[in-house]
């Protein structure tokens, strides 16, 4: 038995009573589908197109699904274009709005393999190279469990304005940043290996970071090697949403390893004129008091560099800016 369906619609409002999620506002839907059960299984092939109002976006699905009762015989080409990420977030039903970075273009092939529905030859681009941008390509063997993922990404930003808008708080104007990463679960856990980020401007804040995040779901293993330089602690505090004193310059080169409960670090750094090197460990396990152990060495410690103001001894006059302690 063959059945053909060609239909246009201008709203999804009739489907809202059977959906738990808010449906996006659309301009029109066009379908041209061919249903068949020649081999006693119900299948469909054809095309579905969704157009968003005010030229905000367009989604197209074209292909076939040989057995609608199972994940079997799926071969569907997907193409989507939206004005920006904010529109894409609305289209897929995200609760928190995404930043208006655009335009966005996505393409890929949805296929089944061993009763798993995956996406292959995925290519996604958002933004432009003169602003905030990202490019992703790769595949995911099982979209429902995010297993068999190998996704490579490049990204960058001319400034932090889009991130500032998304977070809803001011960020320092540190200049451009760029990086790359690979999202994969080849070792059994979904992680970012490697993750590289560099950029900034020397007179305010600059960084060069190489990291691996073994398990994004549990944050059980993190390994970071970084060099960071900042005008002062206040710039770093503004980036991390902390209130820190404007003492500087600040510099650190070293490694940070651990998890969401235990962190250890080793390296060399400075705050203004005070240089130190060594290592420290912090334990922040749930339901326990935080513990920090440090083994740091400095040739000289300038008190005002660590936020301590020396007091004058009666009968003497001390220049606080030149007060130092020799360990």
Can you characterise this structure?
The chain is built from 3 helices and 19 strands. It has 327 residues and is mostly beta strands. The chain has a 17-stranded antiparallel sheet, covered by helices on one side. The longest helix has 8 residues. About 4% of the residues have low confidence.
Radius of gyration: 27 Å
Rough outline? elongated
Beta content? over 45%
Are there runs of 5+ residues with pLDDT below 50, and where? 13-19, 315-321
Give the tally of β-strands.
19
N-to-C CA distance: 90 Å
Provide the helix percentage: under 10%
What structural class do helix, strand and pairing data support? Answer: mainly beta
**Mean pLDDT score:** 84
Number of helices: 3
Give a brief description.
The protein has 327 residues and is mostly beta strands. The chain has helices at residues 85-92, 161-167, 233-240; strands at 2-9, 28-36, 43-51, 57-67, 72-82, 104-113, 116-127, 132-142, 147-157, 177-184, 191-201, 205-213, 222-230, 250-258, 262-271, 274-283, 291-297, 301-302, 324-325.
């Amino acid at each position: 038995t063959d059945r053909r369906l060609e239909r246009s619609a201008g709203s999804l409002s009739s489907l809202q009573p059977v959906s738990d999620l808010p449906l996006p506002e659309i301009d029109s839907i066009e379908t041209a589908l061919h249903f068949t059960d020649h081999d006693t299984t119900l299948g469909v092939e054809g095309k579905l197109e969704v157009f968003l109002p005010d030229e905000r976006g367009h989604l197209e699905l074209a292909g076939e699904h040989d057995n609608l009762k199972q994940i079997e015989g799926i071969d569907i080409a997907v193409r989507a274009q939206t004005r920006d990420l904010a529109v894409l977030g609305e289209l897929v039903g995200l609760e928190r709005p995404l930043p208006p970075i655009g335009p966005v273009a996505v393409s890929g092939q949805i296929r089944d393999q061993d009763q798993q529905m995956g996406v292959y030859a995925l290519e996604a681009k958002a933004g432009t190279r003169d602003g905030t941008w990202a490019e992703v390509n790769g595949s995911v063997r099982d979209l429902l469990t995010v297993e068999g993922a190998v996704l490579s990404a490049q990204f960058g930003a001319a400034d932090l304005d889009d991130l500032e808008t998304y977070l809803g708080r001011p960020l320092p104007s540190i200049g451009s940043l760029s990086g790359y990463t690979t999202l994969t679960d080849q070792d059994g856990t979904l992680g970012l290996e490697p993750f590289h980020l560099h950029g900034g401007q020397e007179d305010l804040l600059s960084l060069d970071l190489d990291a691996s995040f073994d398990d994004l779901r549990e944050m059980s293993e993190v390994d970071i090697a970084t060099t960071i330089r900042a005008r002062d602690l206040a710039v770093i505090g503004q980036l991390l949403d902390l209130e820190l004193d404007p003492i500087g310059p600040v510099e650190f080169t070293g490694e940070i390893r651990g998890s969401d409960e235990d962190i250890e670090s080793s390296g060399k750094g400075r705050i203004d004129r005070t240089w130190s090197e060594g290592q420290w460990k912090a334990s922040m396990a749930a339901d326990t008091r935080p513990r920090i152990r440090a083994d740091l060495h400095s040739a000289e410690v300038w008190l005002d560099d660590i936020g301590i103001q020396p007091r004058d001894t009666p009968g003497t006059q001390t220049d606080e800016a030149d007060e130092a302690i020799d360990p």
